[in-house]
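With this grant's support, the team has encoded backbone shapes as discrete tokens. A representative record is reproduced below.
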Amino acid sequence: MELSARNQLNGKITNVEIGAVMASIKLEVTEPGIITAMITKESAEKLGLTEGDDVTAIIKSTEVIIGK
């Protein structure tokens, strides 16, 4: 499958819970690879981001798409 989305994590589904409106899908990520975050220049400067920094990538749950 080819997608234009850059932030892709491959994994295996470990749990599926289907509710009345939403479904919770848990993935075990096997190969994290590289995540690309597009943020404003102001935010990057305010955080003082530089190569080699330890950081955390936070992905909004409403923005995660499952592809099969």
User: Anything to note?
Assistant: The chain has a mean pLDDT of 78. Strands lie at 10-18, 23-31.
